[in-house]
Amino acid sequence: MKRFLYLSFVVPLLILSAQPTTAAPRAMFSYGTFYSPDIGSFIETYLNFDASSLYFIETESYEYQATVEILLVFKQDSVIREFRKYELRSPAIQDTVENRFSFADQQRFLLPGGDYRLEIYLKDANLEESKLTYFEDISISFEPDQINFSTIQLAERIEKADTPGPLTKSGYDIYPYVDYLYPSNINIITYYAEIYDAANVLGQDENVLITCSIEAFETKTIVQNFNRFKRDVAKQVNIVLNTFDIAELPSGNYFLVISMKDRNNNTLASNRVFFQRSNPELKLNSEAFEHVSITNTFATQIVNIDSLSYFIKALDPISNYTERELANNLASGRNLELMQRYFYNFWLQRDYLNPQEAWKNYYIEMCRADANFKTLRKRGYDTDRGRVYLQYGPPNSITQNYNEPHSYPYEIWHYYEINGQRNKRFVFYSQDIVTNNFELLHSDVIGELSNPRWNLFLNSRSSRGWDVDTENAPEHWGGKSRDYFDRPR
Predict the structure, then answer these.
(1) How far from 479 is each of 270, 347, 405, 482, 483, CA to CA, in Å?
(2) Same-domain status, 250 and 205
(3) Residue 2, in any domain of the structure
(4) Domain check: are 275 and 291 in the same one?
(5) Are residues 120 and 220 in the same domain?
(6) Residue 324: inside a domain, yes or no?
(7) Per-residue pLDDT at 68
(8) Domain extent for 473
(9) 369 forms bridges with which residues in the sheet?
(10) Residue 17: how many other CB atoms lie within 10 Å
């Protein structure tokens, strides 16, 4: 079986505001890596700007327009490999009160495989102090003699290209959707991906199956009715282009997953992209588990409604959004049998053959979370460290530093792999060590809290007042947090 390939995608830059005076441009950034047999590997960068965060000035045609100065720099070991500096102008408007819209930019860079540090510098050309900097580590990897995936590109729309342009790939113009959130007014998710070298690995025109599905982020199980497949033959480049109707998809965190399988249904290669769905108007109910028989099961042995309520609440770290909503409704209803059915069905979905063993193993971890992370006011599962521990398992290493001269007490947890993401970290801090309440300050895991200025805040116990462009605290005696984050022990 071939190695799974995963690539990162959407990264929110900053959320900041109508005719601003000094605020930085507000933008969303994402990127995709692709390969062409003719030109080699390349990366596309996508920026989507919130026009309300920019300053509009009057043009010669008596309209108003904003301009952003953009500098993109790709480095390897501090050596500049590629860069591009340019200005991007917004659509013109008749009045500055009409600035509630967004506009996008896409660039393409030919870069050989390897690891890069992308530096992004944004400035409102009409405001002297309006600047934003951002850094992203990027890996371009298309391995020879195996099937490779491009990034799965989420799109606003896909159209047949009449003439090739900057948005064109494989004869289609792909208009990027530069976000990871699909609000309730967007009910279609459109996606595009390329699969490379299947013909070289399997043989030209060998039969393959391409599957597309939506998985729950927490459980990695396919959401009902969100699974499709098509038969194809192995090519040098296989194109995957389709949509899902997500009108009935509940609010929550998900992966859109694309896989190529052989004639024996073995997965040859796979890729996934994270997205969030907000669908608050979708009605939730308990019909999904009301038919489940609980006779002679472990769930019926839990007859104390307070204990069962606690056990259900403690499932929160490994529950999806829908399950959390149902659990909250059940807790308020206090119907013991319905709670037992829900509890049993929850574990039945995790381990159909032995749901009781799955619950037993989780209960052991719950107790460990309590022993290590509970506070005077919170049980272990309800703390940030306990939630991460139960959701992702124990980290491969923990760096604890409670006595650094200028920083709050902190812990850095390092995972070799989380959900196909490699070398990921969590930073927790406490404003007082006595309560044992360490809050999550930053993580580079997709879907978790991302705070590019975490190091600055962590070291703000005795130093404050740095300007908006400062990302890291100045070096000081005994300061090790950045080193511990970059090089986990």
Answers:
(1) 41, 45, 7, 8, 9
(2) yes
(3) no
(4) no
(5) no
(6) yes
(7) 95
(8) 395-486
(9) none
(10) 10
Q: Tell me: do 312 and 365 sit in the same domain.
A: yes
Question: Which token pair is 45?
Answer: 């960068």
Helices (H) and strands (E) in the chain, counts: 9, 25
Phi first, then psi: what are they for 369, rounded to 5°? Answer: -65, -40
Q: What is the CA radius of gyration of the chain?
A: 25
Read off the tokens for 136: 């992203």
DSSP 8-state symbol, 25: P
Which of the listed residues 358, 386, 414 is the one where a domain comes to its end? 386
DSSP-H helix ranges across 421-474: 454-458
Please report the pLDDT score of residue 479 as a whole number: 64
> Nearest Cα to 123, choosing from 53, 25, 51?
25
Under 8 Å CB-to-CB from 173, ≥6 apart: which residues? 158, 159, 160, 161, 165, 167
| Domain-located, residue 337 | yes
DSSP-derived pairing of the beta strands 102-110 and 168-169? unpaired
User: Is residue 122 within 8 Å of residue 24, measured between CB atoms?
Assistant: yes
256: how many CB neighbours lie within 10 A of its CB?
21
Amino acid 19: pLDDT: 57
Of 248, 282, 316, which marks where a domain is finished?
A: 282
Domain count, the chain: 4
Mean pLDDT of the chain: 87
The pLDDT of residue 463: 56
Shared domain for 75 and 183, answered yes or no, is: no
What's this model's pTM, rounded to 2 decimal places? 0.72
* DSSP-assigned beta bridge partners for residue 28: 12, 48
Q: How far apart (Å, rounded) are the C-alpha atoms in residues 450 and 338? A: 38
262 in the same domain as 376: no
What is the rounded CA–CA span in Å between residue 289 and residue 346?
9
Question: DSSP secondary structure string, 54-75?
Answer: S--EE-TTS-EE-EEEEEEEEE
Specify the pLDDT at position 472: 55
- Could you give the 3-state DSSP secondary structure of residue 430? coil
Burial of 233 (0-12, 13-18, 19+ CB in 10 A): middle
Is the pLDDT reported for residue 64 higher than 80?
Answer: yes
**Is 192 found in the same domain as 306?**
no
The answer to whether 133 and 77 have CB atoms below 8 angstroms apart is: no
CATH assignment of the domain containing 36: 2.60.40.10
pLDDT tens figures, 425-460? 999 999 887 788 999 999 988 888 888 888 888 887
